[in-house]
Amino acid sequence: MTPELVSVITPVFGGTETLSECVKSVLQQSRVHWEMLIVADDGVDHASELDRQGIADERLRFLDTGEYRRGPNIARNVGLRLDRCAA
Length: 87
What we know:
The protein is of the alpha/beta class. The protein has one domain (6-82). It contains three helices and three strands; from the N terminus they run βαβαβα. It has helices at 16-27, 46-52, 72-82, and strands at residues 6-12, 34-40, 60-64. Strands 1-2-3 form a three-stranded parallel beta sheet, sandwiched between helices. Helix 1 (16-27) links the parallel strand 1 and strand 2 (34-40). It is globular, with a radius of gyration of 13 Å. 22% of the residues are buried.
């Protein structure tokens, strides 16, 4: 039996400094079957930002609302449409 995948959807606007702490917290969890969808609402390439800090994991997925400052609800909806748990 395959354990259920958990999706952590994280909207980000201007959170470059706090995002790394958030991602580190998820990486430290004991559960291994998860994905973290980081949805930018600020046009920032958060994958590059985290990579510069030495934070990388294949379970991290980077998305974008395609707009600027649409709000956390829009960003969460983008993540929900693409999360693998709902598939």
